[in-house]
Amino acid sequence: MLEDRIQQAAEIICSAKRVTAFTGAGISAESGIPPFRGPDGLWSRYDPETLDIQHFQRDPLKSWITIREIFYEKFKAASPNAAHLALADMEAHDHLHCLITQNIDNLHHRAGSSNIIEYHGSSRRLICTYCERLYPVTLEILEYLPPPCTECGHVLKPDFVFFGEPIPFQAHREALLETQRSDIWLIIGTTGEVYPAATLPVEAKAHGKRIIEINISPSNYTSQITDLFLQGTAVSMMSELNKRIHKLDQLHG
Ligand code: APR
């Protein structure tokens, strides 16, 4: 039964030395940000080429018009939901030690998590495609597209990973380290289809780590590496899981 599996997950987490969470677009769905894949996903409405680095280099204005619409207009009102908050609370109570997210929406930061590896970068900064100077995103900077670097005049792009770009070296190195350090990987709301991110939980499993997964439907991981599958929304599963973690903490003083 699901109830028993949630309880089991809480017990595993409470007795673990180190826990890593690995999140994807599904955790932000209940904040009003649609995931990428699936019938209502972003890629059913927009061309994924928008986020292809070669396409961006060929025609930055065209890419930027869609990027601004998706990431800086539509979703700017989104706020962290109970699943983001539960992860921050787990960290505050020493039950979560690292959070690797594929999301670029900044909601984990806003929820109060601090030990975050942003594996695909973040939408809250822009980076110069030539001199790599970083800029915080402001309304003004996005007024005229494509935004230019004030230092060297080259085009700025969001400081997140486009298709065809490598993962930031430091993020990849730290995430790989977690596949060996953490006893438990808590995977939330990802299909496990985008590489190299998708290989991280597989690598953790190969190192003998236990995998707890939350998703509304089975993912690529579920039948392959997941030890405990909690089928449900991120908000409902994380709220219940965290409630039980608190109860166990009270029980054990
Ligand atoms: N609660 C839990 N899981 C959910 C919810 C929800 N409320 N809603 C959707 N999901 C699950 C879906 O079942 C799916 O497995 O979240 C997953 C979302 O999958 P994707 O859209 O593929 O998102 P993600 O796995 O994060 O994509 C990885 O792809 O386009 C790139 O760079 C982008 O970081 C992104 C990467």
List keywords for this structure.
253 residues, alpha/beta, 6-stranded parallel sheet, 3-stranded antiparallel sheet, 9 strands, 37% helix, binds adenosine-5-diphosphoribose
Summarize the structure.
This protein is an alpha/beta fold and 253 residues long. The protein is 37% helix and 17% strand.
Describe this structure in words.
The chain is an alpha/beta fold. The chain has nine helices and nine strands. The chain is elongated and about 60 Å long. The mean pLDDT is 95. The protein binds adenosine-5-diphosphoribose (APR). The site of adenosine-5-diphosphoribose (APR) has 23 residues, from strand 8. Adenosine-5-diphosphoribose binds at residues 24-26, 29-30, 35-37, 41, 102, 120, 189-191, 193-194, 214-217, 219, 233-234.
